[in-house]
Amino acid sequence: MAAPGGTLRLRGGAPRRGPLPGFHLSLVTTLLWLSGIVLLPLAALLLRPLELGLSGIWHSLAEPRVLAALRLSFLGALAASLVALPAGLLLAWVLVRYRFPGRRLLDAAIDLPFALPTAVAGLALTALYAPNGWLGAPLAALGVQVAYTPLGVGLAMGFVGLPFIVRTVEPVLRDLPREAEEAAATLGATRGQIIWRVVLPALAPALLAGFAMASARAVGEYGSVIFIAGNMPMVSEIAPLIIVTRLEQFDYAGAAAVGLAMLALSFVLLLALNLATRFWRRA
């Protein structure tokens, strides 16, 4: 029977244990792990730059080299994710809606950036797009240089961000009922109208979520970028490399200041994308 307050009791009057024993122990363990892995490092990142003082933090971040690296990291990540967005949608559409020889191989290849070590990915991209590489040489003949330029940085960022878009959109597209498309077709809608007014509105939240994850991964990417970037100050140098350089110079507070700036900018970016996703879902 149910005792006052909703507690279940046996016939003898003793309370029955819940179906999930050890809740308090699990909660304490989870909070300890969360504190040790997430909260304490974030607290250290927030407190360490204070050694420089507010003026020192501003001076450390206002250097032209740092500003150029931050601009390249964030604008490059956004541009690469925007380019990867239609490509990821197309790949997800092909994998879900079509059956063809080699489909399983293509499906496995999309996850390759997840498993491939970042340094190996950077070396492979550099070998392909260097001025004497397989793809870099024909492009150089056309006057397009990819390696050691911001274009190469964006290429590496798009390489690591594309799987996030595909894997985010794919399950939503698989669950999208085709009856809605068939109903729109029976009402006289063209294929373009069906995609624009039926398919894309249903996929928009997943596309925004995939774009957010791809951008967040691209901003902090290091191994896949430094090889193809060339790391030329004010040209192709990324913000994570600034942090590594300052750490090698034992400027821990300066490195933490750059990391704090990246954390703040990433938080603003993700917050804006999450708000856009919620607004789209309500609309």
From TrEMBL:
<comment type="function">
    <text>Part of the ABC transporter complex CysAWTP (TC 3.A.1.6.1) involved in sulfate/thiosulfate import. Probably responsible for the translocation of the substrate across the membrane.</text>
</comment>
<dbReference type="InterPro" id="IPR035906">
    <property type="entry name" value="MetI-like_sf"/>
</dbReference>
<dbReference type="InterPro" id="IPR011865">
    <property type="entry name" value="CysT_permease"/>
</dbReference>
<feature type="transmembrane region" description="Helical">
    <location>
        <begin position="194"/>
        <end position="216"/>
    </location>
</feature>
<protein>
    <recommendedName>
        <fullName>Sulfate transport system permease protein CysT</fullName>
    </recommendedName>
</protein>
<comment type="subunit">
    <text>The complex is composed of two ATP-binding proteins (CysA), two transmembrane proteins (CysT and CysW) and a solute-binding protein (CysP).</text>
</comment>
<feature type="domain" description="ABC transmembrane type-1">
    <location>
        <begin position="70"/>
        <end position="273"/>
    </location>
</feature>
<keyword id="KW-0472">Membrane</keyword>
<dbReference type="InterPro" id="IPR005667">
    <property type="entry name" value="Sulph_transpt2"/>
</dbReference>
<dbReference type="Pfam" id="PF00528">
    <property type="entry name" value="BPD_transp_1"/>
</dbReference>
<keyword id="KW-0813">Transport</keyword>
<keyword id="KW-0764">Sulfate transport</keyword>
<feature type="transmembrane region" description="Helical">
    <location>
        <begin position="108"/>
        <end position="130"/>
    </location>
</feature>
<feature type="transmembrane region" description="Helical">
    <location>
        <begin position="222"/>
        <end position="245"/>
    </location>
</feature>
<comment type="similarity">
    <text>Belongs to the binding-protein-dependent transport system permease family. CysTW subfamily.</text>
</comment>
<feature type="transmembrane region" description="Helical">
    <location>
        <begin position="25"/>
        <end position="47"/>
    </location>
</feature>
<feature type="transmembrane region" description="Helical">
    <location>
        <begin position="67"/>
        <end position="96"/>
    </location>
</feature>
<comment type="function">
    <text>Part of the ABC transporter complex (TC 3.A.1.6.1) involved in sulfate/thiosulfate import.</text>
</comment>
<keyword id="KW-1133">Transmembrane helix</keyword>
<feature type="transmembrane region" description="Helical">
    <location>
        <begin position="142"/>
        <end position="166"/>
    </location>
</feature>
<keyword id="KW-0812">Transmembrane</keyword>
<feature type="transmembrane region" description="Helical">
    <location>
        <begin position="252"/>
        <end position="273"/>
    </location>
</feature>
<dbReference type="InterPro" id="IPR000515">
    <property type="entry name" value="MetI-like"/>
</dbReference>
